[in-house]
Predict the structure.
Amino acid sequence: MRLDGVIFDLDGTLIDSIPDVLNAVNRLLIEEERCAITSKQIRTLVGKGAQFMLEGAFRITGSPIPENEISEHVRRYLCFYEEYPANDTIIYSCVRDILDELHNNKIKMGICSNKPGRMIEIVLSELDLLKYFVARIGGDDFPYPKPDGRHILHVHSLMGVGKRIVYVGDSMIDKMAASDASIPVVLVNYGYEDGEMKNSYDEKVISSFCELPKALLELSNNYHY
């Protein structure tokens, strides 16, 4: 496999964290005397960072968050999330086995997620996944989060590997970021967002993480240097 590294999205790609994220969001909403939202509703809000998600949750349940209160609501949400970061979060099938395989083949791996950076560290540690990733950059760690391709390129620069890399995600945000970074992408179709996914020269779509090695091999064959 002609690859130097693989960079992953986290939520919806490697793990399903919706139950714990939803719990933290609803604790905040209830404290604010609002109705709890559903798993279906939260799935439409994840992927663009905590602030975007909370602004959406407040719009669904009533008046928007006043601009001068946004940072405080994000802080409170993160406090709730840190209390129970991985109680009901699951690792998708085959993920650990495939990460072991890539690690054993000396392919370096990184995380590029719009999740707050501190929560990336906490959740990966709780799930015993931290050891696989040499670089991990969250949406609040970098001034140009996804879908800006510079987010992925920054993770790549921290990994200390060559140019032959692939990005793996689950959403149109991931697809746009990979395209902006001019990096081939594997998209899993079991994640949090529906959208147009297609197999092409630089894009592979898989329905199970177990299919990732084959997709990476196909994309790696496109690198001729």
